[in-house]
Specification:
2 domains; 14 helices; 7 strands; mainly alpha; two-stranded parallel sheet; Rossmann fold; Tyrosyl-Transfer RNA Synthetase; binds tryptophan; 355 residues; three-stranded parallel β-sheet
Length: 355
């Protein structure tokens, strides 16, 4: 039984500044996956413009995300790094998926409801159709695995629904053209053109919260810069932000249980564990019973040790814009060849003249 070749695809939006949450939750995992998988990492500029972006800022952020990928250790020669818009097949397949996905499916997406808020009439059509473009990103390479955080799981399920409906709607044509690949869907053996892509969850990705409010996610859009550690912060700034992080008057508990109802304390322990690549329990084994006045400097040292080299590399790489652009151009060319070979068949399957 032939099957889909394992391939990892993931994307990061070029909006705002990259912060520690993006690094620990996504980019660091992208780096680790290179050892075991063929990977394609994409700076999703077309996703960014589903809400207004200043053009100059979009260009800056696209290059910054690329520099962060490279600084963190993504190998753009072995794998592919590029920006989404230059491979036009993403947008083309997204249109076809606009015609496969149902209004009802997209209406259920919680991210749309959150982002559109009360003023849904005024949200862009792109924001509504966003998950179809995400499905196209993945499926234009027939990628089998996607590392995603919790907030993107629903979108990945939608990509599976789209793949399944496409495979089903066009099953005769796929068989006629011999374009399908055998796969198991539940108990059933089917012949489909698109894989049902799986999420890749290797251990729970740490949920990194705001340093000012432990109940909110660390976010690039938070008005307070003290709420987050940016990937470009220098050692001094990192230490200051951690020193100023909100905590409560108690010391650290010896058991994870003792962090219940103390979101700020929990967040700092989660951060320490994530940076040290260990568990909350082992952090508390070491620091249980101590005060934040002792723990914070230890956390600051660790954060500086782990992040300063990445920030330094980012600055070095960013200074060479021609190099960053050449990485994206080269990645785009290689991605484009793969995407076009998928689209040739998709056009034939759907019945679009022009090959
Ligand atoms: N929607 C993702 C996010 O906001 C970004 C993204 C776009 C993505 N296309 C993707 C992630 C494909 C994984 C696979 O984080």
């Amino acid at each position: 039984m032939s099957s889909f070749k394992p391939l990892v695809f993931s994307g990061v939006q070029p909006t705002g500044n990259l912060h520690l949450g993006n690094y620990l939750g996504a980019i660091r995992r992208f780096v680790q996956l290179q050892d075991s998988h063929d990977c394609i990492y994409c700076v999703v500029d077309l996703h960014a413009i589903t809400v207004w972006q200043d053009p100059a800022e979009l260009l800056r952020a696209t290059r910054e995300v690329t520099a962060a990928f490279l600084a963190a250790g993504i190998d753009a020669r072995k794998n592919i790094v590029f920006n989404q818009s230059r491979v036009v097949q993403h947008a083309e397949l997204a249109w076809i998926f606009n015609c496969v996905a149902r209004m009802g499916w997209l209406s259920r997406m919680t991210q749309f409801k959150e982002k559109a808020g009360k003023d849904r009439e005024n949200a862009s059509v792109g924001l509504f159709a966003y998950p179809n473009l995400m499905a196209a990103d993945i499926l234009v390479y027939r990628a089998t695995h996607v590392p995603v955080g919790d907030d993107q799981k629903q979108h990945l399920e939608l990509a599976r629904d789209i793949a399944q409906k496409f495979n089903n709607d066009y099953s005769e044509r796929i068989a006629e053209l011999g374009a399908g690949v055998e796969m198991m869907v539940g108990e059933e053996r089917v012949n489909g053109f698109f894989p049902l892509t799986e999420p890749l969850i290797e251990g729970p990705a740490p949920r990194v919260m705001s340093l000012r409010d432990g109940s909110k996610k660390m976010s690039k859009s938070d008005a307070s810069d003290l709420s987050r550690i940016n990937l470009t912060d220098d050692a001094e700034t990192i230490s200051r932000k951690i020193r100023k992080a909100k905590t409560d008057p108690e010391g650290l508990p010896s058991e994870a249980e003792g962090l219940k109802g103390r979101p700020e304390a929990e967040n700092l322990v989660v951060l320490y564990a994530a940076l040290a690549e260990t568990s909350k329990e082992s952090v508390l084994d070491e620091f249980g019973g101590r005060q934040f006045s002792e723990f914070k400097p230890a956390l600051a040292d660790l954060a500086v040790e782990k992040l300063a080299p990445v920030a330094g590399e980012m600055r070095r790489i960013s200074a060479d814009q021609a190099y960053v652009d050449s990485v994206l151009r080269d990645g785009g060319e290689r991605a484009g060849v793969r995407a076009e070979s998928t689209m040739k068949v998709v056009r034939e399957i759907v019945g679009l003249l022009g090959g």
